[in-house]
Design a protein that fits this description.
- The chain has 4 helices and 14 strands.
- With about 240 residues, it is an alpha+beta fold.
- The strands form 4 sheets. Strands 1, 2, 3, 6 and 9 form a 5-stranded antiparallel β-sheet that branches.
Length: about 240
């Protein structure tokens, strides 16, 4: 599976409020920080809790017991507070099915230069698991059409969706669910039974293997369906 890139957008709003400030010359302010993922296909903003399971805001130590604030999906990832000072906060976003090594850690500058401002961050997901892969599809296209490096070319084309009574969309979904060893067996099957018309691409540098399912011989398509259905339980 190739690397999937997304853009995180952090929207900040702040305004002065009529409350006494503990620091002379620095008025009290209400402020809020919202986290979004920008849809790569149409530019729309998707609430980050639709992609990530959890968000941790780490504020300035002066917030005391509210220094660390955790939000879990489906609660929106929005931190709203009041204060007089600017500071840099740390935001940790946790995708589904990953450990600490797969978390997205961002640093955000809370400042009072403008009432509303945005900051963008580019993030990458390497070899996303099926659950994360499905959520990534909500925020734009995913390179390749398969899991763990098996891809398909020409998805969404005008080609027919069934070949030899096999639902190609379901076959592609089933391939995404295969374990690593099973996927290696699929690659071997394709290499051994492909025809001269079969399109494949072996990207050694990135550890990816791409195949256009619609260019496979009918017998191979049927064989892949039978093998995948026994491993994943997909049905016609």
């Amino acid at each position: 599976m190739p690397e999937v890139k997304r853009t995180i957008k952090i929207k900040t709003h702040q305004n002065v409020v009529d409350k006494p400030s503990p620091q002379e010359g620095f008025p009290m302010r209400d402020w809020s920080v919202d986290i979004f993922v920008q849809n790569e296909s149409n530019g729309s903003l998707v609430p980050a809790h639709e992609l990530y399971d959890k968000c941790l805001f780490k504020l300035h130590p002066s917030f005391g017991v509210r220094e660390k604030q955790t939000f879990r999906s489906p609660t929106p990832f929005k931190c709203a507070e009041e204060g007089w000072g600017e500071f840099e906060m740390m935001i940790t976003l946790t995708p589904p099915g990953v450990g600490k090594s797969g978390e997205t850690v961002l640093h955000h500058d809370l400042n009072f230069g403008q009432e509303d401002y945005e900051a963008t961050h580019s993030v990458s997901f390497k070899n996303p698991k099926p659950e994360l892969l499905e959520r990534l599809k909500l925020t734009g296209e995913v390179p390749g059409q398969g899991a763990n490096g098996v891809g398909g070319r020409g998805a969404g084309s005008a080609k027919k969706r069934k070949t030899n009574n096999v639902d190609m969309d379901k076959l592609a979904e089933g391939l995404q669910q295969l374990a690593e060893d099973d996927l290696l067996h699929v690659v071997q099957m394709i290499h051994e039974q492909k025809s001269s018309d079969t399109y494949t691409k072996n990207d050694v540098e990135n550890g990816e293997f791409h195949v256009d399912l619609y260019t496979l011989p009918d017998a191979l398509v049927k064989g892949l369906w039978d093998y995948t259905s026994t491993k994943t339980g997909i049905t016609a």
